């Protein structure tokens, strides 16, 4: 005689999630990219490096060299801090020691780990309006209280920053000073100095996210916040309140997922502990490949990418001027991968996206880039992986979409 198994009630997994998991959200950009995968849709949505520019043969040769030189060690577990020759190269360029450098698995991991070691629930985190969506997604599980800083064509409004700091304490200021994601704007040198003065005065840590800084295709290079902070600290990284994050994803190849954080040693030591709990270390082979490429291939690759992105940005700006209504404004980037479009008040770019996709072109609506909401009439366009033909056809279709929505 057999007896049927009892029917168990469904498990309410959602109720069993930690509070920080409840605060997690899906990346709005990743969700948008799902609807733009049709081959006939021209996508200006994803901030993707141009794959046809990847130094494929150089990576292949570097991989062979690394496997020959290091043998099984290239495939073995390694130290959490990262491959020493790579850390030495990064440190030498920054005027610091390898002890101040932590290799991470992509900048996104660096943001997550920094959020984990720095942000307690309720801490005030200052962010640009708009700001990088991935940073908001990384920090959100740790329960920050965001305060937005207004921005203009010169970056963060430092007068507004001073007013904010006079009214409330803050733990951290997060910024993308160079060719900002999403706007493409660059923080001016005057404002960089003022930002450092104010944050030092009020005891606020500065997290500088700089994945695009080497991709300047017009204008003069500006010193990073980290460089200026180190200068203010007399060259002593232990006295600087600036944390610097960068990556090889936008300058070399994204798939190796190699990035790094520069900071004072007490912060690096905590990052090491946090990373040990996350993934032990960034893949050994990947780090060794990057270390093999940084001396000769990376400088050439940066020049190749800068030239291509400069041409594509100029092409997109020209097409926007030709096809968009005069009521639409946009930024003209000096580097990086993005520009920012503002359509007339009253238009919402979220429903506008569906109308654009119907015309076989896609973008990212601007509202997800605002920590506290807003930006309904904005959008981000990426020119980095688009061909001239795609830019011409796509911008024309997007202009038609905007005009139809305005009628």
From TrEMBL:
Gene3D superfamilies: Aspartate Aminotransferase, domain 1, Type I PLP-dependent aspartate aminotransferase-like (Major domain). One of its GO terms (biological process) is alpha-amino acid metabolic process. InterPro entries: Aminotransferase_I/II_large, Class-I_PLP-dep_aminotransf, PyrdxlP-dep_Trfase, PyrdxlP-dep_Trfase_major, PyrdxlP-dep_Trfase_small. Its cofactor is pyridoxal 5'-phosphate. Keywords: Aminotransferase, Pyridoxal phosphate, Transferase. One of its GO terms (molecular function) is pyridoxal phosphate binding. Pfam families: Aminotran_1_2. The keyword Metal-binding does not apply. It comes from the Bacteria. Residues 53-398 form the Aminotransferase class I/classII large domain. Homodimer. Belongs to the class-I pyridoxal-phosphate-dependent aminotransferase family. PANTHER family: AMINOTRANSFERASE (PTHR42790), KYNURENINE_ALPHA-AMINOADIPATE AMINOTRANSFERASE, MITOCHONDRIAL (PTHR42790:SF19). This is Class I and II aminotransferase. It comes from Deinococcus phoenicis.
């Amino acid at each position: 005689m057999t007896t049927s198994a009892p029917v168990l009630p469904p498990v309410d997994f959602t109720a069993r999630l930690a509070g920080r998991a409840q605060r997690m959200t899906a990346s709005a950009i990743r969700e948008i990219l799902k609807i733009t995968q049709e081959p006939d849709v021209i996508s200006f949505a994803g901030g993707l490096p141009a794959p046809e520019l990847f130094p494929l043969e150089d990576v292949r040769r570097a991989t062979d060299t690394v496997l020959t030189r290091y043998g099984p060690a290239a495939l073995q577990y390694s130290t959490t801090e990262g491959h020493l020759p790579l850390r030495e190269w990064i440190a030498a360029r920054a005027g610091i020691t390898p002890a101040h450098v932590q290799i991470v698995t992509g900048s996104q991991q660096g943001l997550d780990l920094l959020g984990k070691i720095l942000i307690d629930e309720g801490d005030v985190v200052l962010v640009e309006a708009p700001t990088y969506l991935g940073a908001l997604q990384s920090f959100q599980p740790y329960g920050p209280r965001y305060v937005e800083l207004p921005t203009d064509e010169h970056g963060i409004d430092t007068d507004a920053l001073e007013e904010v700091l006079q009214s409330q304490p803050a733990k951290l200021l997060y910024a993308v000073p160079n060719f900002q994601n999403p706007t493409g704007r660059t923080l001016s040198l005057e404002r960089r100095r003022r930002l450092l003065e104010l944050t030092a005065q009020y005891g606020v840590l500065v997290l500088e996210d700089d994945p695009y800084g080497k991709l300047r295709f017009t204008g003069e290079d500006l010193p990073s916040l980290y460089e200026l902070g180190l200068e203010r600290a007399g060259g002593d990284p232990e006295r600087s309140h600036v944390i610097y994050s960068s990556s090889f994803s936008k300058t070399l190849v994204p798939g190796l997922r190699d990035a790094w954080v520069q900071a004072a040693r007490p912060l690096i030591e905590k990052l090491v502990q946090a990373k040990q709990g996350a993934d032990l270390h960034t893949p050994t082979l990947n780090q060794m490949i990057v270390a093999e490429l940084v001396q000769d291939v990376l400088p050439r690759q940066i020049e190749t990418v800068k030239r291509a992105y400069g041409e594509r940005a100029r092409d997109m700006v020209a097409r926007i001027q030709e096809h968009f209504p005069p009521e639409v404004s946009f930024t003209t980037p000096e580097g990086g991968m993005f520009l920012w479009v503002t359509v007339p008040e009253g238009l919402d770019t979220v429903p506008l996206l569906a109308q654009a996709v119907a015309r076989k072109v896609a973008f990212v609506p601007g509202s997800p880039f605002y920590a506290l909401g807003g930006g309904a009439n904005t959008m981000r366009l990426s020119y980095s992986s688009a061909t001239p033909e795609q830019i011409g056809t796509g911008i024309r279709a997007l202009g038609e979409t905007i005009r139809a929505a305005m009628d």
